[in-house]
Structure formats: structure tokens, C-alpha cells
Amino acid sequence: MSHTATDNRGIDDTVTSHRATNPAGTNRTIFSGIQPTGRLTLGNYLGALGRFVDLQHAARCVFCVVDLHALTVEHDPRRLHQLTRETATIYLAAGLDPAVCVLTRQSDVSAHTELMYLLESTAYVGELNRMIQFKEKGRGRPRTRVSLYTYPVLMAADILLYGGTEVPVGDDQRQHVELARDLAIRFNREYGRTFVVPEMSPATVGARVMDLQNPTAKMSKDAPADSLGSIRLLDPPEVIVRKVSRAVTDTSPDVGYDPENRPGVSNLLEILAGCTGESDPAALAGKYDGYAALKRDTADAVVGVLEPLQNRYAELAADPAHVDATLRLGAERARELAAPTLAAARTAIGL
Ligand code: TYM
Predict the structure, then answer these.
(1) Which of 73, 84, 105, 269 has its CA 20 to 30 A from that of 300?
(2) Nearest C-alpha to atom 4 of ligand 1 is from which residue?
């Protein structure tokens, strides 16, 4: 049943209060998250984390370690706990400033799961059946966790809870952000304007960093620990150099940017561009007449980006109580930010 705008007094106030309390003085609110399912990779950095750092001064930002999402696949509780803290420490080491943005852990803010249920009651089975990630990782397997199926709805709740206008993510999250948009629009249409409709904000370079050994697959934190294809953010410099120097390219003697037909070399150019702030990986190709120099420069550029992060990580990891305290404080702020939207959604849907 549709309601008119006058049925929703207070709800529009919630939508606008996100703006009124935005310390950056803009209408932008940015939300994004990373799952602590493995050790973070260069893909996570170029597609997401590095951009969080750049964006934090431009808008109100909430960045979350989305630990509930890590329960969707087989997991070891102790490892999950360690990876959650490691991911939060990497957020800080990369340069996210808890005085500027809200850094939080998803499971500390119960509003995420509460809103998820309201959105599960808005989403259709048909649209979840179309989710590529579920099709690839879980469909047809009897021991697939139910939470893997409903995971995109939790992700929508994550975003909508904070009135996220922009969601900086890598290319692989496009379908999930689309679902968040569809659910926001549907809920608003059915029950009155409650949610801000978010936009995906893809990286211009490095939106899909590929595996160095298998450049037709994305670089993933789920890769085996000894994989030469994934550069981990905490890999020592010599390991990074080794991984880049062994990257698969092709038999063509020249260096050229053609992601479709030459994925290996194009991926190196993309990484080089992403790590040097170049906006056009194709333009970099002309500077090289062989792979050796390209690999050397790419490795140097990656080390140049990751070494400062790793030094800072070593300092922060020595004081885990500080990281835990930062997350506790972040959770308090996140709960305050989330409460009005959750309350408005509950009222709108008839609770
Ligand atoms: P996750 O944890 O798989 O990845 C975290 C972020 O890193 C990006 N990314 C990549 N970007 C470029 N190249 C790659 N090879 C690469 N691999 C990963 C992802 O696109 C993502 O931005 N469902 C999300 C986590 C999530 C979330 C959210 C994100 C949960 N709730 C709300 C945004 C908003 C995920 O699995 O990301």
C-alpha cells in the first residue's frame, strides 16, 4: 500500500537530518565496508580503501569492518576475530582518521541486522536469485549458509542505515549497490520517503585489479596464502617484487593496454597507474618497450604506496587496545547516526 508524503511526518526530517549534521557541510554521505574474510589485497586498496582515505575530508564518512558478512562462508571464529582487528588496524594505517570519519565494526551496531529484516521484507526472492555472487559461490550446494543468500540485503541495510549518498567500491560490488538502490526506491514508494537512494562510486583506475597469475580472475583476499597472484597489503617489499616480477603477461613483445585481449600486461599498467596517481593506464604503455622495466616500475610503485602503510601498521599493531578503543568510540557514533533512520523505517513499515 502506498502512503502519501503527509503520512510520513518525521520521516522526511530523518532524511534531511543526515545532511544537517554533516560536518563537512555538504550533502554527501559516504559509506563503505570491507569483509574480514582474508588478508587485504592491493585490489581492496585500489578499489576501495585508498579511496576512502582520499574521500574522508570531502563528506561525512562511515567506514565499517563488515564482520557479519564474514559469517556467510565457512569460518574459524578465532581467525575472524584476528582478521577483524587486522582490518581495522589497516584502516588506520592507511590514513583513515577517526577524528574525521566514523570507523566502526558492523556487529557492534545492531541496527544493521534490524534494518536487514525490514529490507528482507522488501526484497524479492527473484532478485536475490539473480545475484552473481550467490550463483557462483553457493547456489545448488546444500551446505551453503542461508546468510550467503541474504547477504546483499545486509549490505543494502549497511548503506541505507547511514543515508549513504555514495558508495565507493570496486567493480565487483556493482550488482549489490544496484540492489540497495532498488530496495530504497521500493521501500520509499511503498511506505513513504525514508531512505536516501545511494549511488555507486566506482574507482576510475583499479576498479578491478586482476590476479597476477590468472589475470582473467580478480585479485582476491580468498586466494590461498601462498598464492603469487594476490599482493597482500602487508606483504614485505621483497615479496611484492617477486610477485610482480613473476606476473603472467603474454607473448607479444611490446607493452600495450588492451584488457580484453591482453589482461596480464593491462593489469600491470592499471596497477602502475593506480599506485602513481595516473588517470590513464593506456598512456603509460607508450613509455615501455619491454616487460622488465614495466615490472620494475610497477613493483617500485606498489612498494612506494604500501611501505608507509606497513610502517604505520607495525606501530599500531603494537597497541591493539588503542585500536579496540577506536572501534568502541566509532560504534557509539555509528549507533547515534543509525538510530533515526532505523526508527523512521520501523514507523514507516508499520511497527
Ligand atoms: P570485499 O570485502 O570483497 O572487498 C572490499 C572492497 O574492495 C573491493 N575489491 C576490489 N577492487 C578492485 N579490484 C579487486 N580485485 C578488488 N577486490 C575487492 C570491493 O569491490 C570492495 O569495495 N560486499 C562487500 C563488503 C560490504 C560493503 C557493504 C561495501 C558489505 N557491506 C556496504 C560497501 C557498502 C565485499 O564483499 O567487499
Answers:
(1) 84
(2) 34
- 169 pocket-lining for ligand 1 (C-beta < 6 Å): yes
Which residue's CA is the closest to the ligand 1 atom numbered 36?
Answer: 35
Cβ(44) – ligand 1 distance below 6 Å? yes
Which ligand 1 atom is nearest residue 219's CA? 15
Question: Is pLDDT at 1 greater than 50 in this prediction?
Answer: no
CATH assignment of the domain containing 261: 1.10.240.10
Q: What is the pTM of this model?
A: 0.93
> How crowded is the C-beta side of 348, counted as CA atoms within 13 Å?
35
Q: Are residues 180 and 242 in the same domain?
A: no
Residues 181 and 41 in one domain: yes
Q: Is the CB of 198 under 6 A from ligand 1?
A: no
Query: Minimum mean pLDDT among 7-21, 90-104, 233-247, 274-288: which range?
Result: 7-21
- Report if residue 227 sits inside a domain: no
* 235 C-beta closer than 6 A to ligand 1: no
State the pairing for strand pair 199-202/102-105.
unpaired
Distance CA 241, CA 44 (A): 19
Atom 27 of ligand 1 has which residue's CA nearest to it? 33
d(CA 133, CA 113): 20
Q: Report how many domains make up the chain.
A: 2
Q: In the structure grid, which three cell numbers stand for residue 194, read together?
A: 525514508
**Angle of the 111-120 helix axis to the 320-349 helix axis, nearest 10:** 40
Ligand 1 centroid to Cα of residue 8, in Å, is: 34
Which ligand 1 atom sits closest to the C-alpha of 151? 23
In a domain, 262, yes or no: yes
Range of the domain at 46: 5-206+319-349
Same domain, yes or no: 57 and 111: yes
Q: Give the model's confidence band at 18: pLDDT under 50 very low, under 70 low, under 90 confident, else very high.
A: very low
Dist. CA 300 → ligand 1 center (Å): 25
Pairing, β 166-169 against β 102-105: unpaired
pLDDT for res 22: 52
| 35 shares a domain with 170 | yes
Average pLDDT over residues 221-228: 95
User: In this structure, are residues 131 and 178 in contact, taking their beta carbons and an 8 Å threshold?
Assistant: no
Provide the annotated active-site residues. 137, 218, 221
Q: How confident is the model at residue 136 (pLDDT cuts 50, 70, 90)?
A: confident
| C-alpha of residue 351 to centroid of ligand 1, in Å | 33
49 domain-assigned: yes
Whether residues 71 and 89 fall in one domain: yes
